[in-house]
Amino acid sequence: MSLREQFTDRLKISMKAGDSATTMTLRSITAKVKDIDIAARPKGIDKVSDDEILSALRSMVKTRRESIVMYQQGNRPELAAKEEAEIAVIEQFLPAALDEAALKQAVADAVAESGATSQKEMGKVMAALKAKFGAGIDMSVIGPLVKAALN
To answer: What is the location of CATH 1.10.10.410 in the chain?
Structure first.
């Protein structure tokens, strides 16, 4: 089942259950996916891949985490809680994150596979990781690990 179908099914379920918070989050996800589809049309792409959708979901989570920090600094715990609830809904569609040891092993394997020896060759390692894991790995998390491994 594609991510789009999962969004639609979950939206129907949340609407029937009367879960307005989940419904609003799922509607924002589908709106974001439509925006991405529209942006891809000039390139001749009608519907973007699930990998691009996963990337957009990670971006949505990142934005909400930044908002949580701002709300906590502004003494608005109710808004921070709302953002945390939205993150919980969005993360249901993201693949399970690798633990720290698995990430370090993946980086070490990619460094060995690509033959990179310095930070100038960081792109080779990142490309190898992207090819192996696709959208299953968060590149913003893996970047510092690659940099550390190449030092």
So the answer is: 100-150
Tokens of 25: 């989050």
3 state SS of 76: coil
| Contact between 86 and 114 (Cβ < 8 Å) | no
How many C-beta neighbours within 10 Å does residue 11 have? 17
What CA–CA distances, in Å, run from 119 to 115, 124, 126, 143?
A: 12, 10, 11, 11
CA–CA gap between residue 52 and residue 116 (Å, rounded) = 27
- Domain covering 3-91 in this structure, CATH number: 1.10.1510.10
CATH fold group of domain 100-150:
Arc Repressor Mutant, subunit A (1.10.10)
Domain(s) of CATH 1.10.1510.10: residues in the chain: 3-91
Per-residue pLDDT tens digits for 30-66: 999 999 999 999 999 889 988 889 989 999 999 999 9
Looking up tokens 């609003």 gives 24
Contacts for 69 with CB less than 8 Å, ≥ 6 apart: none
